[in-house]
Design brief:
By secondary structure, the chain is of the alpha+beta class. It has 3 helices and 6 strands.
């Protein structure tokens, strides 16, 4: 696994990963950017949401369950002083009401406690909590 970013000018970078997918990174205009991509710290939140989201969907599929709606959002708290680092993450799983509560809880707990490596890494330096919203 590897990642590489190449400067495009001002604060804009284009990153490529192991499978040559592309992600754009940039900063807000207030610090010299042009808002042409995600902020690096936002990518950390996406990594957490994507990791646990993929786990939960894979586990639900093994249970032969298919949600009509599944969304994972992450909010983070960080320190005020530089270097500004994350101190807490809160994950919200929004799921269609057709998934039985006990099956959903099992899938989320397996992701949080066993499978999601991003969650485990982030727990080494911050608090990670979660909630479920059924719609």
């Amino acid at each position: 696994m590897h990642a590489e970013v190449e400067w495009q000018g001002k604060m804009h970078f284009v990153g490529t990963g192991s499978n040559d997918t592309v992600v754009e990174l940039d900063a807000p205009p207030a610090v010299g950017g042009e808002d042409r991509g995600m902020r690096p710290k936002e990518l950390l939140l996406h990594s957490l949401a994507g990791c646990t989201g993929m786990d939960v969907i894979a586990i639900l599929h093994k249970m032969r369950l298919e949600p009509t709606l599944f969304r994972v959002s992450v909010r983070a708290e960080m320190t005020e002083e530089h270097p500004k680092v994350f101190t807490a993450f809160h994950i919200t799983y929004t799921v269609g009401a057709e998934i039985p509560d006990e099956k959903l809880e099992k899938a989320i707990n397996l992701s949080q406690e066993r499978y999601c490596g991003v969650t485990h890494m982030y727990r080494s330096f911050a608090k990670v909590s979660h909630e479920v919203v059924k719609v």
